[in-house]
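Late entry, written up from scratch paper. The run itself happened at the end of the previous shift, but nothing got recorded in the book at the time, so transcribing now.
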Amino acid sequence: MRAGDNNLLILTFYIIGISYTINRMIESIDDKINFSYNKASVDEQLKEQNIFDDVGINFKLAPTHGLEDLKEVLMFVENKSKNLAVYVDWDNSSIVIKHNKQSMRVIRKSPDITRDLAVPQSPGLVAPEKTLTTTITSENTFERDKESGVYNTKKPIVDIKGLEKNPVKANRILYKKFMNEEVTLEFSLQLVLRLSEVRVGLSPGVNKPPMCIVNCPFTIKKLPWTYALPWNKRR
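Output as recorded:
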């Protein structure tokens, strides 16, 4: 065998070895997803309902999550006004999953032990020029501990892994397309706000609508394996 043939053979095995090592490294990287909140859509709804100057709605999300990591969301409701009481109606708010059209009651998490999910939730008051900061989730994330009788958040808000072996073929196809980064998933918080003038002598609804429903949409995107590269993690 000529020297040139030997060199080509060595180079071929080297490339195969490098490719195998890179593929194994990629396979070892955990699947990660990104949740993005469409604040522009929410702001537009607030303008349409004539409360943009009075109410602000925002959320805090980590840049990356595991497929089953997002079990709760940190939410901020700001009352920008000087004479308007803003109430968040938790029991009439819901989280809606787009791909299965599932609607679930919103649960405002508290430091107290949760023993009964059926207990009515008091509306959250946001006083004038104050901000309500709270953690919310959906009813389906809770599981009851048989021994203690306490409910804890155990499941993700959107069960992406559940699509993989779902009996409905369309859901299995959706899972594959999502993991291949071909499609995104969506869910939304349907937030019910009740507004009341705090000035004496003004009836509810005179200057502002007494109730507003604001759709807060989120998009879920599968991140490529390159997210794990050091320069991407620093972003």
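The chain has two domains: 1-30, 33-228.
(Scratch paper discarded after transcription.)
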